[in-house]
Amino acid sequence: MNGINIVITGASMGLGARIAEELVRQGASVLLCARGAGPLDEMVSRLREIASSAQIVEAMTCDITNEMQVDALGVRSLQVFSHVDGLINNAGVYGPFGPIEDVDWEEWKQAIAVNLFGTVYPSRIFIPHFKARRYGKIVNISGGGATNPLPCISSYAASKAAMVRMSETLAREVSEFGIDINSIAPGVLNTRLTQELLEAGAQTVGETLYGRISSMAKDGESSIRKASELVAYLCSPSSDGVTGRLISALWDPWPTLHERKNELADSDIYTIRRIVPKDRGKDWG
Q1: Residues 167-184, buried b or exposed e (16+ Cβ, 10 A)?
Q2: Cβ-contact 244, 271 below 8 angstroms
Q3: Which of 21, 31, 129, 218 has the fewest CB atoms below 10 angstroms from its CB?
């Protein structure tokens, strides 16, 4: 990935930090953004230790729900780099836990702002640059909320489902410009977000989800490694033409998807679609 320049949101910790490390190890230059200056500075120092002299590692504080700050991120990216090849919309939150009638409404709306608006607006800022170059990559970090109902985590589920459909939609909007836009499902990770859910407890998030997350979190290190490798693949020229998909880091054969890009383009594989009776062997009509 030598010569490739990537902007990453939510890059000071968790999955965002691991994505940044994977990209730098593969030769890319990165501009990290997050709300906290201290963790960002620490991350920049860590990455510069493994970066070559030809790579750029920079950071700036940015709240992705603040449009003026995202505008400034777009400007800053072109001051740091001659051009931008990719945007990774990683920043996200679970939002409040609990039944819809009990959760704090402002917190519920804020989760939508972070997860959905905080993905769409940065994409909006960078797409004109990608169109001008007739090339670009956008990778959006989704999750189980996009494909499964998540009782008591409704803002997370709603925002992630909306993010995936927006990704599919934008991918078609920009298809003639050589821009690939995909979402990934990283699996359960040993990150701050997972710990927040576990700390909320089974009574708040439900026994079923709590048990599933508790079990899967034991393999969280493997998940975070595979997720960061998938993001790097989707930012690389190897994946050119793979677009408009929701890809699982754990379950899908993503290292070879570029070999199937023509089949993917003509199908609804790895997309969100409505299930009708005949899909399940029913003759209801």
Answers
A1: bbebbeebeeebbbbbbb
A2: yes
A3: 218
Structure tokens at 53: 């002299």
13 CB neighbour count, 10 Å cutoff: 16
User: Residues in the chain, how many?
Assistant: 285
Residue 121 catalytic? no
Of 261, 254, 193, 195, the C-alpha closest to 228 is 254
* Catalytic-role residue among 156, 210, 233, 270: 156
Q: Which amino acid belongs to residue 23?
A: L
**CATH fold group of domain 5-190+221-272:** Rossmann fold (3.40.50)
The pTM of this model reads 0.90
Q: Using one digit for the tens of pLDDT, what is the confidence trace for 59-80? A: 999 999 999 999 999 999 999 9
* 3-state SS record for 156-217: HHHHHHHHHHHHHHHHHHCHHHCEEEEEEECCCCCCHHHHHHHHHCHHHHCHHHHHHHHHHH
Q: Cβ(24)–Cβ(57) under 8 Å? A: yes
Q: What is d(CA 191, CA 221) in angstroms, rounded to the nearest whole number?
A: 9
**Domain locations in the chain?**
5-190+221-272
CA distances in angstroms from 251 to 67, 260, 267, 284, listed in the order given: 35, 16, 19, 32
Q: How many whole angstroms separate alpha carbon 281 and alpha carbon 285?
A: 11
Q: For residues 125 and 87, what is the distance between their CA atoms, to the nearest angstrom?
A: 10
